[in-house]
Amino acid sequence: LICLTYQAEWSYKYETQWPGVCRAGELQSPINIMTRSAVVDYHEAHIRGPLGFRGYGDVKVAASNNGHTLKWSNIPDTPAPIVSGGPLRGNYTFLQFHLHWLSEHAIDGMKYPLEIHMVHIKTGLSVEEALKRPDGLAVMGVMGMVHSGGNSEYALDQIMPVIPDLMDRTEKDIEEKTIDMTRLFSPDPQSYYTYHGSLTTPNCQEVVTWIVMDKPLMISDSQYKMLLEVNVGARNNYRSLQATNRVVYRSVASCSAIIMPS
Ligand code: 1SD
Ligand code: ZN
After folding, report:
1. Which is more confidently placed, 158 or 233?
2. Which residues, at least 6 apart from 153, have a Cβ–Cβ distance to it below 8 Å?
3. Residue 153's pLDDT is what?
4. Mean pLDDT along residues 165-183
5. Which of 57, 142, 156, 168 has its CA 20 to 30 A from that of 118?
6. Model confidence at 235, in pLDDT bands (50, 70, 90)?
7. Start-to-end Cα distance in the chain
8. Protein residue closest via CA to atom 13 of ligand 1
9. What digits encode the pLDDT tens for the residues 60-118?
């Protein structure tokens, strides 16, 4: 008798078996962003202006390893940063940031060694509500590029010390800490690509306004090496590229000039 079993939990290895909209959806993420096809929505950009970042300098977070990623979550009942403007209608409150290595998005076919996702929820909604609305979440993606030069001020300095404690999967949050999240921002946070897509993990709900930063962060060789030592499961945690099927926009600030079609 040959017996079938089932998987208790999803895994990247069995991506083709992810449920429902993960397979059937047409607005899935991540995608390869073709920069030459990315257009400015001048009308929209004109209305909401640059991205506005409030409260990112001083964020109380708790780190954890959920077996799929390392994650730093905002501690409930402490002030949470808020992003607005750009492609967003209204405010979005920061929930958590986590890491993917390799990157999930590609830019002009190029994948980066790391992608940081800063997950935000439409202010005032519960997670359950947000997962049912096309505008429920906004995720900022920042690429990380390994840089072997002599720069001593690296973006990941604040989050590296806890990583050895996160090597093995643990459900409990460890080491609450106040960090300056602006250090994790792209060197030019007003230059980005934006499109409507999905969560990159099951159940892949198509509720995300993606804001993928154009300019990468620099991380050091030794920081990247340390990230490669994290336990399997929380590494190689990137979903394969999905069909683009849609227009990708770029921010006004990423253009040196704008040509209006006649
Ligand atoms: O993979 C994360 C997942 O862990 C969870 O944080 C979710 C937000 O509820 O977001 C996805 S992702 O699309 O930001 N990769
Ligand atoms: Zn992610």
Report:
1. 158
2. none
3. 58
4. 81
5. 168
6. low
7. 70
8. 199
9. 999 998 888 999 999 988 999 999 999 999 999 999 999 999 999 999 999 999 999 99
Expressed in angstroms and rounded, the spacing between residue 205 Cα and the centre of ligand 2 is: 13
What stretches of 26-111 adopt beta strand conformation (E)?
32-33, 52-54, 59-65, 70-74, 82-84, 92-100, 106-107
Q: Using the structure block, give the residue that is written with the tokens 């590494």.
A: 235
76, 93 Cβ separation under 8 angstroms: no
151 pLDDT band, cuts 50/70/90, is low
Q: Among the bound ligands, name the one nearest to the CA of residue 119.
A: 1
Q: Specify the residue with its C-alpha closest to ligand 1, atom 4.
A: 201
**What residue type is assigned to position 186 of the chain?**
S
What is the residue whose two structure tokens read 């929209």?
A: 44
Give the C-alpha separation, 203 to 181, whole Å: 28
Point out the ligand 1 atom lying closest to the alpha carbon of residue 201: 1
Enumerate residues 6+ apart whose C-beta is below 8 A from 111. Answer: 102, 103, 238
Q: What letter represents residue 100's amino acid?
A: H
Q: Whose CA is nearest to atom 3 of ligand 1?
A: 201
If DSSP codes are grouped into helix, strand and coil, which group holds residue 121?
Answer: strand
Q: Does the beta carbon of 138 lie inside 6 Å of ligand 1?
A: no
Alpha carbons 29 and 10: distance in angstroms, whole number: 17
pTM above 0.90, yes or no: yes
Residue 198 C-alpha from the chain's centroid: 11
